């Protein structure tokens, strides 16, 4: 049924296409017909001017025979030309309707290209036949009127030459008009193919126009000379000069038109070649279209092929770059992170799809983490490759412990061994102790970071040294910095400093410091950084280098904005007076080793004691959270000591919410509250599963889920 | 912060007293069972197992599982298991996991001894 439906639809479509093509053919024939009539009328006008004004034959003498004969001749010529045109174009329009095999397209194009030449020849042949017929019949008719009538051959030849010259001129007009009118239909079969290109020469139409117009001028001048000779009169130099000038001008105009047409196509070709040389996929637009089939088309076909090949190369390169960009993005940590009381906001804007800037944030045990920023010299793919390798090297080296100076020294040695002093990379590395809020900072040729105070005062941290990758014996100085609540530690790369505006003025350290001094508001840090970088983009556009900025903010206990009143007191004390929507927040990160949960639960217990002084749920929370941490270590992180478990706790006036994140793929927690299950569990030798029983019994509500941070177990406790 | 697990055992007529200290977790399993089995081998007429948990700072689910296994094993061979020195929080947890079905809780050693004497009469 469906097949029959499709066939019917195809039939209908073919029918509609047939009608559309028939309309198009009629439309084209109409336009060509107008051109034929117009050309012949111009010819008639010129014949009239020539006969009456140049040759001086009175109109009365022309009216009985010559004028009707000329009109009939024009009608016959128009009909014959339309007939030839219809015969030539019909197969072309059938190809339009039939969706076309390639060879049909080539044949159609050939027919369209040949039509102006056929019209040129046909017009001359028809004109010649009409003229012969007219003069033979005219002679016979004159002989029947006057038996003594003798043909005046010089005069006759002169008139014939002039008429032939006009016929030639009309045929040239037809040739040019047909080429112009057929252009849009020729373009329907584009782009041009190898088989069509080079079948004709670009000089052909120009030569025809030039030779035709020259011949027409000569024939008309010959007519004037012979006519004057026959009348035994001298040739009138004014008439001779005017006629010569007129035909010369007409001939040159036609030649110019044909030349301009060719030049237009040639210029298009040159423009496309220039765009190709300019490079970039945006410049590589559509293929070149041509309405002729000469050497220019041959060039266009070659150019189109070159363009297609370059487009393919670009597309492939773009795909690869996109892939590389995705890989690079996945290697970098998230842009917004919170570790303990620290909030980290990092933004990375590569100049091209991939870049050589990088940053990283790595938790180190339960109370330390590292923040790193780096800049590989150079841009693009080589820098991106080195950046990826260094990021992985950094993660492995920072986990091997040691202070930032030692980590940089080890990375330096490895880079020197691998790259042989060919790669130069600047790195700034800070290790933060969350217990003391101290930062151990070491720099390998990186720009001085800033510490920005909450009131907008800032200080640059000088720590001069060479980048890594120069000398494998280098050591790196470590500076210890103390952060206070509200302080912001700002790391950045040179792409930010060197960003130039339209006038070429760099953003410079002054620009950066002016910006830092405005960081006094209580605005959210990520929003503030995004606004700043947005302004940078407006000022400097994409720039010419990667831009990276990493800001570490010591926020202390984070309070939701609505809970700011009294939050400072509550962070270390009773939260009883909090409204229901106010919460105090704390976070711990621990390695996946049994026993690590003990210290955290004790700290949590102490915090609970301060926050809910007379509550009875403290020990319940401690036990339930310890069990959830153990589950995250064992089932989530599979006891991999390099994987971390994050505990986030929010304490409100009546509710505690604990979220325990792991880095694993997640698991289905199963707990049954039935008697049978408990008996089965007691009899089982498998000691596992009691943790969930405890969580289920101790918490008021619990659930597991996943968000952008990872898989988590969420526990809710009501105040009791 | 983590306190290592320690174990002492002593015997009394027809029974053993195990004094547990530190953190009771899954890792206590080996030591605890070795000690208990050793005791039963020495005196096959052991009928009572008393656990002193007063010095235990922390018990997690692994520790609970160890205690359940110990008490269940005792019951299978006809040994009564008693415990004292358990905080109210852990008492609640013992009840939650059904440990109190295998283990009788008493406030102190004296109460346990009295109960054992009553059972022996």
UniProtKB/TrEMBL annotation, chain A:
Q: Report the transmembrane regions from the record.
A: 34-59, 65-87, 117-137, 157-178, 208-232, 244-262
Query: SUPFAM superfamilies in the record, alphabetically?
Result: ATPase domain of HSP90 chaperone/DNA topoisomerase II/histidine kinase, PP2C-like
Q: Which residues form a coiled coil?
A: 300-327
Q: Does the keyword Glycoprotein apply?
A: no
Q: Which UniProt keywords apply?
A: Coiled coil, Hydrolase, Membrane, Transmembrane, Transmembrane helix
Ranges for domain PPM-type phosphatase = 338-554
Pfam families (UniProt xref): HATPase_c_2, SpoIIE
Q: Which PANTHER family match?
A: STAGE II SPORULATION PROTEIN E, STAGE II SPORULATION PROTEIN E-RELATED
Query: What name does UniProt use for this protein?
Result: SpoIIE family protein phosphatase
TrEMBL record, chain B:
Q: Which domain of life is it from?
A: Bacteria
Q: SUPFAM superfamilies from the xrefs?
A: SpoIIaa-like (SSF52091)
Q: Where is the STAS domain?
A: 5-121
Q: Name one Pfam family in it.
A: STAS
- Write the protein's name: STAS domain-containing protein
Recorded source organism is: Paenibacillus oenotherae
